[in-house]
Each structure stands twice: as structure tokens, then as C-alpha cells.
Amino acid sequence: MLEIKFIRENSDLIGNALKNRGNDLDLESLFEVDSQRRKLLQEVEDLRNLRNRVSEEIGRQKKTKKDTEELITQMKGVASRIKELDKLLGEKEASLNEYLFSMPNIPHPSVPVGKDETKNPVIRTWGDILEFEFKPAPHWEIGERLGILDFERAAKIAGARFAVYRGLGAKLERALINFMLDLHQDLHGYTEILPPFIVNEKSLLGTGQLPKFIDDLFKLEKWNYYLIPTAEVPITNLHRDEILDEEVLPIHYMAYTPCFRSEAGSYGKDTRGIVRQHQFNKVELVKFCQPEHSYAELESLLLDAEEVLQKLNLPYRTIELCAGDLGFSAAKTYDIEVWLPGQNRFCEISSCSNFEAFQARRANIRYRPKGQTKTRLLHTLNGSGLAVGRTFAAILENYQQKDGSVLVPKALIKYMQGVERITKQ
Both 121 and 56 in a single domain? Predict the structure, then answer.
């Protein structure tokens, strides 16, 4: 969330940022609501000051036995007016908050201008794209043929966009989770968290999923709780309404969780396979740091996520999102896209973002600089390290063999208890 004072004082910057994002939020209406709110606030403060002064005068006059009935009657009218104005003020503040909570973050100056994903520049590529001696199959065909993925029974149990992992498929999914957690803990120094998979409205408001993305969430019936769309939500809210000492920064957390999304805006994309599911597993990386260090932390976060693919020897490319493709809360984002030969395309497998103070302001997360009494908003960052199901799909497609089997990446063999090849179950 952006601060209203900053928006007022930088209206041209905000207007240009919204334009670059393709956002049509009406700033004039926002400023009108803010102006009305400030006028009401000033009137309320003036009346309260008057009430305090007159109350003191009433006290003095009573001590001297003077008649105070007229002053008391006057103050009853003032109290009634304050009550009336407080109600109006509450309505204006609610309207202002509606605007502020609907306003996206400002892109960092380094973010390229562009209207959509077609304008996202490729930063680098890694790995060699294999030339197969046969036509590579998509992962859903491989998984069903090997008996390690079952979409038909998943649809019977739940519905479309679900999958059952069976036998070595389930073992491979679990191996990927453990491999990613060990890598980020042992080599990159993240602290593992196992959070609740259900959160309240305040948590979703703090990270920016609410109110804008309510249609993409699964809400529990008769409860004011939601299934998490990503571990970013519970992990970021670990420190909601807290003031941290600067000495503990930066904080690096990681978490494995299942994630739940309605995919309300997908409109038929990736309907086959496990690329876009209602339930999927993910290892998430979350950082808290001082503002002056956040962009260095973003670069290191990106490298941490990329290393997962490097150790699995999966070819990928890294792109920088243009302003028109940025997520709602992000100031700058890199996407990592893994190569899927069975579909002849790159597929997003991680987004690494710096939110600057956007989430910290919404969630009221601050830190106290060393030797100072005044607190500051810190910066939050997060990235997938990685989406497990999409990594699973990439392994099936990149490691498929002519005989229909799938080789296990060397880095995973110990997590697969020595299994080097997946054959038909």
C-alpha cells in the first residue's frame, strides 16, 4: 500500500506509474475523497479543542459558583456535531482505504516500460536444449503411461485441475521438496518454517491478495478463513504488527506448503497436466531487510532459485517483467522459465519480487535502526524456490527416454533412495 501523503506529493509520478501498468484508477476521485476527509478531520479537531477549552472554563466557573448552564448546553451541541462528523469521517476514511488498497505498487525506475508479457526482456539463459531422436511427449502423457500420474481418478475425487501422484511419482514429488529445502537451508542459509495452510483476512490483506484477488481464493464455508494461495502469505505475516531490531536483519525464511488457487483468470490456459492446478506444492523463499539492501537481496534471491534448476540440469531462461506485466504488489520482478520440450515452450517456474515497503505498510512491519528510537518500514521480498509440480513436469519432459522411461536427475537419486530410472509402474 502506498502512503496517501506520498501520492498527494507525487501525483505525476503515480499517474505515470499507473499508466505504465495499464491501471485506470481515478486519481482525481481519490484526491477529492482525501480532501473531504482532511476537511472533516480539521473540523473535528477544532471542535474537540473548543470542547476542551470550554470544559476547562466550565470547571473554573463552577468553582466561583457562576452559572454554567449556557456553556453546558453549547457543549451538548458541540458533542452532537462531533458525533455526526465522526460518522462522516469514518465513511470518508473507508472510501479512501478502498482506493489505497486497490492501488498497485510503483514500478522501480529500472523496470522496462511495456504493456504485456511480449515486452519482457530476457536477462540470461542457462543450459543446453536437448535434441531428441524421437518426438518428445508432454508430461501428462509420460506420467499416465508410466502410471505415476492419475488425472482420471483425481477428477473423480475432486474435479478438474487436480492430480493423483502414484508410486515413484509421489516419491519424486517428495524428493523434490526435500531437495529444495535442503539446498536452501544448507547452501543458502534460509530458516525453515512450517506455517498453517489456512489464514485469516488480515493476513491476505497484508500481502495484497485482498481485496483485489478475492476471486482467486478458496474461502472456508462458515469460517472467516482462507486456504493459502502461496506460503508468502503466512510467512510474511509472521512479523505483522511487529517492530524488529535492525540486528536481526536480514531475515531469510523458506517454507514448503501446498497452495490453493481457483485460477479464476486463467481462461482455459494449461488445462492439461500439472502446470496449472487448483492444488499444488511449492517451496517459497521470503526475505525481510533494510530498504537500502533490498535490491541486492533480490539479485541473490534470484540466484538461489536459479541454482535449483542448475543442480537438476534443467535448461531455463530468466526474464525481467515490464511494468504492464508486474504483479499487483511488486516493484520489480524476475521470472524464471524452464524449458518443456514436450510442449516446445518455456514455462514460468518461479517469480522473484521486491515489494519494497508496499507489504510492510499494509502489514505494519517495521524495524528500529541501531541507536535510534524512530522506526522505519522494512522491505519484503519473495520468490518460488521452486514450484514443485512444474519442476516435476520439467523433469519428465527433459529426462524422457526413447523406451518411455524417465531418468532421475543425479542430484535427486539419494532422495529417491537410489532409484535412477522411472519405468512403468
Answer: no
* Cα angle 308, 149, 125; round to 5: 30
Question: What is the rounded average pLDDT for all residues in the chain?
Answer: 96
Q: How many CB atoms lie within 10 A of CB 299?
A: 12
State how far the Cα of 259 lies from the Cα of 128, in Å rounded to an integer.
31
**Does residue 265 sit in the same domain as residue 199?**
yes
- 366 in helix, strand or coil? strand
DSSP for 86-104, written as a single string:
HHHHHHHHHHHHHHHHHSP
Residue 135 shares a structural domain with residue 73:
no
**Residue 387 and residue 173 in contact, taking contact as beta carbons nearer than 8 Å:** no
Predicted local distance difference test score (pLDDT) of residue 267: 60
User: Could you give the residue numbers annotated as active site?
Assistant: 261, 276, 348, 351, 390
Among 284, 341, 336, residue whose Cα is nearest residue 306: 336
Closest among 299, 102, 313, 300 to 210, alpha carbons compared: 102
